[in-house]
Amino acid sequence: MLHRRDVLTALGAAGLLPTAAWGQAAWPSRAVQMIVAFPPGGQADVTARPAAAALERVFGQAVPVVNRAGAGGIVGSASVARAAPDGYTALMALSSLGVLPESERIMGRTPAYTVDQFAPIARITADPTVMLVPAKSPWRSVQDFVADAKKRPGAITFGSAGNYSTLHVAMAMFTGAAGIDLLHVPFQGGGPALTALLSGTLDSLASGPGPALAHVKEGRLRALASWGRERIPGFEDVPTFIELGHPEVEFYIWTGVFLPLATPAPVQARWRDALRQICERDEGLKRALEAAGSPIAYQEGETFERFFRDDTARLVRAVQRIGKVE
Question: Strands 252-260, 89-94: parallel, antiparallel or unpaired by DSSP?
């Protein structure tokens, strides 16, 4: 006969056992870290901070946001993949999570992590990226920008959060469709790239709408187009690339929470329940994300897993088209 301990272990692994029976009734009993694999100011950070504040009210514990930047998101993401699978370390990831291992392979390196080391918990936001230029620039439309780029191949710069990051892939989709050659300037995250654009040391940038919205409203930046199928709330006057005749230029920058794969099912469920609760009921989180131009687009469970799998496959194909970046 199976011992009671063996039965409990099997049921717990299958996620069929109540949390208390698994010995996790007191979880969390200490602070829970939320890792952002980019510097402050980018899309993951903009989502993580109000989400962490809301989670503190649900968990009853501190949820510090830790920015662990480096290698376009690889350093922070790999640290979560290697973290103890106890639920006390989570990753607020971008869509680049699934791209970076393939980029490492293309560069002839062993990936620091693979996507199968993570358990997808929930998606929080999903926004089309928006193409930005300084308000003082001569480009008032995509047509102006493309015409100038064709006259001066390689002279106009665009920034990104690093080679093969979401911002790099988005711009590569556009430049390929428009048949133009821009100079890529990688940064250590979307925040520093946005700072460079604001200072005038960078010519253009694909950005999540959240970090860009206030700067556009203040007249410091100009939005030329967006990568969505529909126009973005807050950017209603900005056409999509699809409207401008580029039906293949469609891209979304999303944020989602991931845990190390071996995290016990009851703890994963506790995270999922907490995230669902704050996304459905926390008015402070809703207001913060809407004010930032990134309304909640919640998904969980099999729906999010399928979205993550399909989106990753699409982005990997785009990265393979970009090829090796010296």
Answer: antiparallel
In a domain, 109, yes or no: yes
Where in the sequence is the domain holding 155, given as residue range(s)? 130-226
Task: List, for residues 78-135, the tens digit of each pLDDT value.
Answer: 999 999 999 999 999 998 899 899 999 999 999 999 999 999 999 999 988 999 999 9
Is 179 a domain residue? yes
108 lies in the same domain as 136: no
Please indicate, yes or no, if residue 242 is contained in any of the structural domains: no
Distance CA 292, CA 211 (A): 7
CATH of the domain at 149: 3.40.190.10
Q: Which of 322, 294, 303 is nearest to 94 (CA)?
A: 294
DSSP assignment letter at 324: -
Residues 136-164: tens digit of each pLDDT:
999 999 999 999 999 999 999 999 988 88
> What's the start-to-end Cα distance of the chain, in Å?
61
* Domain membership flag for residue 259: yes
Residue 171 contacts residue 206 (beta carbons within 8 Å) = yes
- One domain for residues 48 and 123: yes
Interatomic CA distance for residues 324 and 326, integer angstroms: 6
**Strand 296-300 to 118-128 pairing:** antiparallel
User: Which pTM does this prediction carry?
Assistant: 0.75
Q: What's the rounded mean pLDDT across residues 180-203?
A: 93
